[in-house]
Design goal:
It is a single chain. This protein is 83% helix and 0% strand. The protein is built from 21 helices and no strands. It has helices at residues 3-41, 45-73, 75-94, 99-127, 133-157, 164-170, 172-182, 189-194, 198-208, 211-230, 240-255, 258-272, 277-305, 307-330, 332-335, 338-356, 358-369, 375-378, 380-404, 406-427, 436-444. Helix 1 runs antiparallel to helix 4 and helix 3 packs antiparallel against helix 4 (99-127). 48% of the residues are buried.
Length: 452
């Protein structure tokens, strides 16, 4: 591969990474911001929950409008809009005069993140060469965890001054970088061919692929476009079971408490005994580092071990971790100083187990179990479930801890882990080493999920 192609691919990879980074940053930065906004504006538990969860409403809206926008204006322009929306959102958040303005500004950032979640992986898959597609596909998730870690580091940096406005404003940096990279990006060749602009599509392929691969790539895209055009979505009774499994696994992924850990980590550690905000943020950074490192473990294990063993083992450890945290809350006085370190161990255990199991494997499984003819339509259900559960859980967490206590709240998450384990054992199929065609054939023939 010549240097020119490598340079073009590097620009594409970096742009995709910054799209994921800003989405991860927005998810994590509220964990530090809320410590000081809640104190400065004396927010109730209900308003705190709305402030944290409202970004997911924007994400939902961004994901919903993405399909129409992507087909109408192309993938590249949406990447530009992501950077622009996020830049505007960060400026508005950092200059918010009251909680209502801040909540509205978070919606703008949420729209940018929703667009990024939907379009960046699609763009990377469509513009990357076949041989590098797997690598490019993993960039978004990896950069997302880097964004979360970066948000924790920035949060810690400004903790001593309690400058939550600067925490938001720091998010403008990846937005500006993404806007600069936009001018060096090429449009998706698949979209260009979809619009009948074959000459431009060839020019893009010349920038990113070897000459001998170009004709085959164009022929593959045209064949795929013809199949999509000829196919009509027809839902059948046998598709109900994979739909139930996909929706169930998304409920399990979110309602076991992952986004509570990501978005409320410093507050959780304060409740465990780390009263100083700086100390709570330091522990939060450790969680961010572990989350980042475990992404590599997940990338290695998914195809080595299999989906179901990873989901089962991970969810069991997640449940034990939640119950351990609840135990430290119930018996903190008796445990003394050991209590807060057991709480840290519990959260580390949860993050490690989620990061190699329910986090990545749930999405892999969902992408595999739907039949090709209706995959696009059916995928909207687990995606919508993911967003809705995120909104509900993040909004309710402060209310639950205030009214029921931390111990009961985390026991509730542990109970959901137990239910999820039973769900996985009885209903989730093992798809490792089975072709997509065979999986579909099993559904058609009424094969029980645990008999795959």
């Amino acid at each position: 591969m010549n240097k020119r192609i490598l340079l073009n691919l590097a620009i594409i990879a970096i742009a995709g990474s910054f799209g994921g980074l800003l989405a991860g940053y927005e998810m994590g930065i509220i964990s530090g911001v809320q410590l000081f906004v809640v104190k400065e504006w004396n927010l109730s538990a209900e308003l705190t929950g709305i402030l944290v969860s409202i970004v997911m409403v924007g994400c939902f809206a961004g994901a919903l409008i993405n399909g129409a926008l992507a087909d109408k204006i192309g993938r590249k322009k949406i990447i530009g809009l992501i950077g622009l929306f996020y830049l505007i959102g960060c400026i508005c958040c950092s200059h918010a005069t009251d909680i209502n303005v801040l909540i509205a500004s978070r919606v703008i950032n949420g729209v940018a993140c929703g667009l990024a979640n939907a379009i960046v992986p699609l763009y990377l898959s469509e513009i990357s060469p076949k041989k590098e597609r797997g690598l490019f596909a993993s960039l978004y998730q990896l950069s997302f965890t880097i964004g979360i870690l970066a948000s924790y580091l920035i949060g810690y940096l400004f903790t001593s001054t309690e400058n939550w406005r600067a925490m938001f404003m720091a998010g403008a940096v990846p937005a500006v970088i993404l806007l600069v990279l936009y001018f060096f990006l090429s449009e998706s060749p698949r979209w260009l061919l979809l619009k009948g602009r074959e000459k431009e599509a060839r020019a893009v392929f010349e920038k990113i692929d070897e000459q001998e691969e170009i004709e085959a790539s164009i022929a593959d895209i045209k064949a795929g476009m013809k199949e999509e055009k000829d196919s009509k979505v027809s839902l059948k009774k046998w598709m109900f079971m994979p739909l139930v499994i996909a929706v169930g696994i998304m409920i399990a992924q979110i309602c076991t408490g992952i986004n509570v850990i990501i978005c409320y980590a410093p507050k959780i550690f304060q409740s465990a005994g780390f009263d100083d905000p700086s100390a709570a943020m330091k522990i939060t950074i450790v969680i961010g580092v572990i989350n980042f490192l475990m992404t590599f473990v997940a990338m290695y294990l998914t195809d080595k071990v299999g989906r179901k063993p990873l989901l089962l083992s991970g969810t069991v450890i997640m449940g034990l971790s939640m119950f351990l945290f609840a135990f430290t809350s119930f018996f903190g006085a008796q445990l003394g100083d050991y209590s807060k370190w057991l709480a840290v161990l519990a959260i580390i255990g949860f993050i490690c187990s989620f990061a190699y199991s329910m986090g990545p494997v749930a999405w892999v499984l969902v992408s595999e179990i739907f039949p090709l003819e209706a995959k696009g339509f059916l995928m909207t259900f687990p995606v919508a479930t993911n967003f809705i559960c995120n909104i509900i859980v993040n909004a309710l967490f402060p209310v639950m801890t205030e009214r029921m206590g931390t111990g009961v709240t985390f026991s509730f998450f542990g109970l959901i882990c137990v239910i999820s384990v039973v769900f996985i054992m009885l209903l989730v199929p093992e798809t490792k080493g089975i072709s997509l065609e065979k999986i579909e054939e099993n559904w058609r023939n009424g094969v029980a999920p645990n008999k795959f």
